[in-house]
Each structure stands twice: as C-alpha cells, then as structure tokens.
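Protein folds are increasingly written down as discrete tokens. With that in mind, we are printing a sequence and the tokens encoding its fold.
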Amino acid sequence: MQILIGACGWQHEQWQGQFYPDDLPLDWRLPYYTNEFETLLVPYEMWSESELEEIESWLDDIPEIFDLFFEVDLGLCNENVKKMLSHEIFRYRQVKFTSKSPVQCLEKCNMQHGAIVNNVSTDEKIALIRCSSQNVIKPDEIRQLIEKAKDDYRECDNVFLFFDQALLDMNILNNAKIIVDLLSTD
C-alpha cells in the first residue's frame, strides 16, 4: 500500500512566503504545487463555480502522472454542474471524482472517506481521506492518523490523504510526507 499526501486546493494565501515564493505569480501556483506533491483534491466549492476554460487551464498545468481529484457533493449538483461533469475535458485527462461522507477519526481530527464516483478503468483499489480540524495537529497525531488509515484501508493499493482548513500549515503537510516515508521503511 502506498499513502500519498496532498492538500485540498492550492490557492491558499497563508502559503505565500511560507510555501510559495513571495514573487511567484498566482497562475504559477498550481504547477509549483505539483512539483512538490503527487496529488491534489479540488473542493467542490472551488471548481463548481469556475468556468470550463479555467478548469481546462488547471488541467494543462499538471503533469500527466499526477492524481487529481475533483470533489462532488451529489446533493448539491445542479444541471450546470452535471453538464460540466460530462464535458470532454474531464474524460480525456481521466480526472477522478470523489463524494463526501464524514467519519470520526481522532479526537482533534475528522476524516471524510471518499467514494470514487467514476471508473478510471483500472483494477486499483484506492481510498480517499479528507482530514479536517479546527486545530493544528502535532506530528504524533499525524502519525496516529496515518497508522489508522493504513489499518482501515489495508486492502487498498493507494490511500490518498488530503489536509484542509487549519491543517493547511505547510509544516503539517511536510511532516505528513516525512512520517509516511518513515513508516514505509518499517
């Protein structure tokens, strides 16, 4: 099993100067992010309000070997979103979609397990976990979170662990990557 660490979205102002160089243009943020991470979850609120041309430019900015997931809130899908989901830009890049369903994980952190909505024509079993917290979590809590994911989804080939809200401190993402690397050597 491989655990991949990513963020929910990439347009976070608190990353300017912390992760993104101060002089990095806004439209270079996504390519910069993809150089550091292997996966990204685009929240429903972000992409459902975007124009197709903007989404297509995002897709052009990512490498071919990159796991990009668009979150779908099936309860909120209107006709415009359904029309967008059927557009060819999503098919030719094999963008993956996931829905939301919350699961309590640790005392300070919630996990939302994502079910794959579209079939990407592979036999690979994957799990998507969106971690959210109002508090910044410590490295030992990150380790607990990763170990719980490994245990809960041991039958999966890949587990994608996405961090959002207060967890978007770049130190948390970097610590999670380091912890995954250390645990994979066990």
